[in-house]
């Protein structure tokens, strides 16, 4: 799915009238099948931009087009139809606590199913093999019948990603998909998302706090700060100076060094047994 933003401003409905717009004057074009990383300090507007692209937050000025169609001028049925074609994955997937993992993953099949089949799936999960394949790819094959509230934070996050894999959305908007994963799992999960998106021609926009991973894995990186686009460049052109300006006064968030440093020399720790 192609995304086009022209001079877009957006603000959350709960903002005080005197507060500035959350997103300000964004011009952006993302082609169908492209993969783009969104980076920027906390509060920069990454989540808001994903919500805007996912037709969950309307522009208050300017225009958003998804595949050439303005979701906010498509009527209620048109808006629903567009939303069915995209997946907006929040940082913490809203999973009902007592639900089985299989049912939570298969929720992404609902747009493809009739109402009768959707209701039937609540009693007897339909197409469980799809959920199993997605979970296995994410290293969670043994959790298919587990209850969601018995999973760790990182496992829940992977259940959220499994939803993307079983669905048929043409646009994946994923917010911090790796925040609860250890570095190895994070890199593997991101690689899986990118590979699958590429194979299916899905457009992928992911917000990432892990800057080094964003630069290593994506060819295009967008830097957002205070609701404005600071840069939109090939990853190879994102210099340390650009990153310093992007994260100025938020340096602590720029945790990962750009170049891999020498591995630290770890001194042996004496242990005393009593
Ligand atoms: N529902 C809301 N109502 C009012 N203001 C909001 C709402 N959600 C976000 N904001 C404000 O919009 C601005 C951008 O927030 P957003 O969550 O988009 O940033 P972010 O870059 O995703 O941050 P983080 O990296 O911490 O998740 C912030 O100032 C935030 O306080």
UniProtKB/TrEMBL annotation:
Residues 3-251 form the ABC transporter domain. The keyword Endoplasmic reticulum does not apply. Keywords: ATP-binding, Cell membrane, Membrane, Nucleotide-binding. The keyword Cell membrane applies. GO terms for cellular component: plasma membrane. Pfam families: ABC_tran. One of its GO terms (molecular function) is ATP binding. Coiled coil: none annotated. Gene3D superfamilies: P-loop containing nucleotide triphosphate hydrolases. PROSITE patterns: ABC_TRANSPORTER_1, ABC_TRANSPORTER_2. This is ATP-binding cassette domain-containing protein. It comes from Inhella proteolytica. The lineage of its organism: Bacteria, Pseudomonadati, Pseudomonadota, Betaproteobacteria, Burkholderiales.
């Amino acid at each position: 799915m192609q995304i086009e933003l022209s001079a877009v401003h957006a603000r959350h409905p709960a903002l005080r009238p005197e507060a500035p717009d959350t997103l300000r004057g964004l011009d952006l074009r993302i082609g169908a099948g492209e993969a783009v990383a969104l980076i920027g300090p906390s509060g920069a507007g990454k989540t808001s931009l994903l919500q805007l692209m996912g037709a969950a937050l309307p522009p208050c000025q300017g225009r958003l087009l998804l595949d050439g169609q303005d979701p906010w001028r498509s009527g209620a049925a048109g808006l629903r139809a567009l939303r069915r074609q995209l997946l907006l994955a929040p940082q913490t997937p809203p999973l009902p606590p007592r639900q089985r993992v299989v049912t939570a993953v298969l929720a992404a099949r609902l747009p493809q199913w009739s109402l009768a089949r959707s209701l039937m799936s609540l009693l007897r999960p339909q197409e469980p093999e799809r959920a199993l394949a997605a979970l296995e790819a994410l290293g969670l094959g043994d959790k298919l019948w587990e209850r969601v509230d018995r999973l760790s934070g990182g496992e829940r996050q992977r259940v959220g990603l499994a939803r993307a894999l079983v669905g048929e959305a043409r646009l994946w908007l994923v917010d911090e998909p790796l925040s609860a994963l250890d570095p190895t799992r994070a890199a593997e999960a991101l690689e899986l998302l990118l590979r699958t998106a590429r194979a299916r021609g899905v457009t992928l926009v992911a917000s990432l706090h892990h800057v080094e991973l964003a630069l290593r894995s994506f060819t295009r990186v967008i830097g957002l700060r205070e609701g404005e686009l600071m840069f939109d460049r090939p990853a190879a052109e994102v210099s340390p100076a650009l990153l310093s300006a992007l994260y100025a006064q938020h340096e602590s968030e720029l945790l990962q060094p750009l170049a891999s440093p020498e591995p630290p020399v770890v001194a042996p720790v004496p242990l005393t047994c009593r």
